[in-house]
Design a protein that fits this description.
The longest helix is centred in the middle third of the chain and has 19 residues, at about 220-240. The chain has 13 helices and 14 strands. The protein is about 40% helix and about 15% strand. The strands form four sheets. Strands 3-2-1-4-5-7-11 form a seven-stranded parallel β-sheet, sandwiched between helices. It has a three-stranded mixed β-sheet with strand order 8-10-12. Strands 6-14 form a two-stranded parallel ribbon. By secondary structure, the chain is α/β, with parallel strands linked by helices. Strand 4 (about 75-80), helix 4 and strand 5 form a beta-alpha-beta unit. Helix 1 packs across helix 8 (about 220-240) and helix 3 (about 65-75) runs parallel beside helix 4 (about 90-105). It has helices spanning about 15-25, 45-50, 65-75, 90-105, 140-145, 150-165, 190-205, 220-240, 270-285, 300-305, 310-315, 320-325, 335-350, and strands at about 5-10, 35-40, 55-60, 75-80, 110-115, 135, 170-175, 175-180, 205-210, 215-220, 260, 265-270, 290-295, 320.
Length: about 350
C-alpha cells in the first residue's frame, strides 16, 4: 500500500470491540499510514487516553448526526462499532457522509459495519432450536431473514444504500458471542459471558435459562480483531484511495448485498457455558456447589439483561464463517471454556475497585 495517509473514522474506540480494533490498527504494520479519528463522548480522561495514542477524538455520540456525517465524509474508511447493530440514526449519518464523499470525489468509500449473529437468533428460551446454520458464502440465505429479526433494520438500510450507490463499498461483520479480555484503552469485557458470571456471583449459584440446550457460536476478541484487520486490508487493496488500478480482489471479498462476514471459531450450548462457570466458581470457593439450575422465569429479566435476556443468553444462533477463512483468517486463541476463569478473575477484581 502507498505511504500516503489513509483517513480512518472509528466509533466505539473506548468500547470492547472498537477499543480492540483500535489497538489492532495502532499495531498494524502500516500504522504510520493511518490518520485515526474516533467519536467519543465528552469525557476528559477518555479524550486524554486517545490523544496519547495519537488518535484524534471528536466529541459527540450516536445522536450527533452532523458530527458523524462530517467525519464520515472526510474518511477513506469508516468502522462503526458503537452500539452499531441497533442504532439506525448513526448509521444513516455515516451513509450520508460517505455518499456525499463519493459524489464529490467519484471514488469508492469503504464502510465496515458491526452487526451481530443476534440477527439469526431463534427465541427458544433455552430450548433446542432448529438445525439451521447460516453460512456467509450464501448471502441469499442471510438476505432471506425476516425484517423483524434483531439488527435487521440497520443491516437492510446499509445494503439498500450500497445498492443505490455502487461506489459505496459496505461490509457487515456479524460476530457471535465474543469472549476474552479486550486490548482497548477503556472497556475490556464483553456482554454475554460477563452477564452470566455476574448473575452467578450475585445469586451464589450458576444458572441457565430453561434447559440451556440452545446453541450459539463464539469467538475470541483477539481473533475477531484479526478478522476486521484482514477485511480492512483487503478492502483497501481493492477500493482504497491508493489501490492499484490493476488490483484483482479476491472473489471472496464481497460488498453490499453479498458483503456479510461471520466470525466464529467454536460453538457452545448455554448449559455447557453455565456448567463451566459453576465449575470455576466452585473451585474458587465462591459458590457452595457447581450444580447448575434454571433461572425461575419471573427472575430472568431482573437477574440478567432486562427484557433482552431471553435473546442474549437464551436464544439459538448458529453461523459458519467461511468467507473470512477464504480471505486468510486463522483464529487460534484459547477456547471460550478455557477463557471463563480469566473473565471471572477480571470481574471479581473490578467489583473490588
Amino acid at each position: 500500500m502507498s505511504s500516503s495517509k489513509i483517513n480512518v473514522f472509528l466509533t466505539g474506540a473506548t468500547g470492547y470491540i472498537g477499543g480492540s480494533i483500535l489497538t489492532g490498527l495502532l499495531q498494524h504494520p502500516n500504522a504510520a499510514n493511518f490518520n485515526i479519528t474516533a467519536l467519543i463522548r465528552g469525557d476528559n480522561e477518555r479524550i486524554q487516553k486517545l490523544t496519547a495514542l495519537n488518535v484524534t477524538p471528536i466529541v459527540g455520540d450516536n445522536e450527533s448526526f452532523e458530527i458523524i456525517e462530517k467525519a464520515a465524509k472526510n474518511a477513506h474508511v469508516v468502522i462503526h462499532t458503537a452500539n452499531s447493530a441497533d442504532d439506525l440514526p448513526s448509521t444513516k449519518a455515516i451513509i450520508s457522509g460517505l455518499n456525499a464523499q463519493t459524489k464529490e470525489t467519484g471514488k469508492p468509500a469503504i464502510y465496515i459495519h458491526t452487526s451481530g449473529t443476534g440477527v439469526l437468533a431463534e427465541d427458544v428460551r433455552g430450548n433446542k432450536g432448529t438445525d439451521t446454520v447460516y453460512n456467509d458464502l450464501h448471502s441469499d440465505q442471510i438476505n432471506g431473514l425476516a425484517d423483524s429479526q434483531p439488527h435487521r433494520d440497520v443491516d437492510l438500510f446499509i445494503i439498500n444504500a450500497a445498492d443505490a450507490n455502487p461506489l459505496l463499498k459496505t461490509v457487515i461483520v456479524l460476530p457471535p458471542l465474543i469472549y476474552g479480555i479486550g486490548t482497548g484503552p477503556v472497556n475490556r469485557t464483553s456482554i454475554q459471558l460477563p452477564v452470566l458470571i455476574r448473575a452467578a456471583l450475585k445469586r451464589h449459584k450458576a444458572e441457565v435459562i430453561g434447559l440451556g440446550q440452545a446453541t450459539w457460536n463464539n469467538v475470541h476478541i483477539a481473533d475477531l480483531t484479526d478478522a476486521y484487520i484482514i477485511i480492512l486490508d483487503q478492502l483497501l487493496a481493492a477500493y482504497g484511495p491508493y489501490a492499484k488500478s490493476d488490483a484483482q480482489p479476491s472473489p471472496y471479498l464481497t460488498t453490499g448485498r453479498q458483503g456479510y462476514y461471520f466470525a466464529e471459531n467454536g460453538q457452545h450450548s448455554w448449559r455447557q457455558l453455565s456448567d463451566k462457570i459453576g465449575e470455576v466458581l466452585y473451585k474458587k470457593n465462591i459458590i457452595k456447589s457447581p450444580e447448575v439450575t434454571s433461572f425461575p422465569e419471573n427472575e430472568v429479566e431482573d437477574s440478567l439483561w432486562g427484557k433482552y435476556s431471553w435473546y442474549v443468553v437464551g436464544s439459538q444462533s448458529n453461523s459458519k464463517a467461511e468467507r473470512d477463512r477464504k480471505l486468510g483468517w486463522k483464529p487460534h486463541r484459547p477456547s471460550l471454556f478455557d477463557s471463563v476463569e480469566e473473565t471471572v478473575d477480571v470481574l471479581i477484581n473490578e467489583s473490588k475497585n
